[in-house]
Amino acid sequence: MKKNHRIPTLVALFLLIGGVAGGVILIKSGSTWLAGARPEITPKQVKITNVSESGFTVSWITDEQTSGFIQYGAEGELSFIASDDRDQLSGQQGKFWIHHVTLKDLKPATNYFFKINSGEKIFDNNGQPYQIKTAPTIQETMPPNDVAYGTILKQDGSPAEGVIVYLSLANAAPLSGLTRASGNWAIPLNLARLPDLSSWATYDKEASVEEIFVQGGSIGTATAVTVTKYDSPVPNITLGQSFDFRKESSQPTPTAVPTSASSGFSVSKQESSSSSANLTIINPSEGEEVNTSRPEILGTGPSGETLTITVNSPETLTSQITINGDGTWNWIPPTSLSPGKHTITARLADGRIISRSFTVLAAGSSDMPSFTASPSATITLTPTPTATPALTPTSTASGRISIPSTEGGIPKPGYLTPTFLVFMIGVVLVFLGLLTNILF
Question: Are residues 53 and 13 in the same domain?
């Protein structure tokens, strides 16, 4: 007599539950197992810079163009998202080789934790979130306005857009800025702090040495050395080369007015070196084409002074603003500017005046993001490679990003493969359970 062998229903259910549980584990760890981080999107040379009482900057490079943003929060809760500086300005998510993310509106003297999202994968600091403490509030008066600026060029002589300029002063925390479409960069030295962030850094405005490192990723790097006497402007820096600008003979003529092909500032060296004549327009540069109808106008001037801003074009707009305590000012037109050429004029009450012309492109005439400056994006501070060691990120489980954002975070799609795999495992186990009960 043939004996029937049956697998009890309880065992079949146990196998089914085990398969589902295994699938859940695969979902949690499967992003790495099934879709491991490709080396091309792994963040390299991660640097934390521009640490102030209300923010800091995180920068890194990747071997291929990819999206990138920061998930961050205090007390270990990474509940906020900060996008790349260019994404914050354009309102769209771009893909870059060089990444520069500025976190803003933070609390002073507070520990913040963050992870890097690169190409929809999450990277941390060897299994732990990166950690940085914001600077304390400084009670002393901020030093007078002092801006270092210049232009970065590619090896073919064209402007190098979107590269990072790291600037280091002795006995000061590292600084940096991101170049605009014209290749222009600007870094306010008066915002530099001591390495421990406890107070403003002190330096000689004539003879302190500045070390500059330009990170251009796949298009090359450059180094330069200058002194504070010759940093407004720093002569053009070309990627792939090294420069020593400490000798006066290597500087431009003091009265020469830079054009958009050089620094893009409509102010002479002689004017900018005078503490009583430091009215400048930093963005947009002379003749620049901007892909936004409401560009952010950025400049410097005597702190606390009233500035009258006038835009002349088909329409005329006039506004009055007060220059910030750190000597910077920014203004956005209250209404959209029509496509075409516009001239902006900034005037102080004592009669000092500066003008700048730029062109607003018509909608659809360019596929480039609207890259205008902001106090936290273009005039931000970051490190030199010698001051801040590069950190090595490690990949953690990625999956779908659904963290609420207060700073323009962009939701990311989830991974289909783990879900489909779990579904198929469940179907197979149910089928096997039914089949064994029928046969045995």
Answer: no
Q: Are residues 25 and 71 in the same domain?
A: no
* Other Cβ atoms within 10 Å of 103 Cβ, number: 22
Q: What are the structure tokens assigned to 359, written together?
A: 């062109």
| 52 within a domain of the structure (yes/no) | yes
Domain span at residue 63 reads 39-136+391-396
Residue type, 435: L
pLDDT in tens, 271-319: 333 333 468 887 776 777 776 777 778 777 888 889 999 988 777 888 8
Rounded Cα–Cα distance for residues 80 and 85 (Å): 15
**200 found inside a domain:** no
**pLDDT tens, 124-166?**
888 889 999 999 999 999 898 889 999 999 999 999 999 999 9
**Judgement on whether residues 28 and 85 belong to the same structural domain of the protein:** no
Find the helix packing angle between 9-34 and 416-439, rounded to 10°.
160
351 token code pair = 């009669």
Q: Based on the number of CB atoms within 10 Å of its own CB, is 247 exposed (0-12), middle (13-18) or buried (19 or more)?
A: exposed
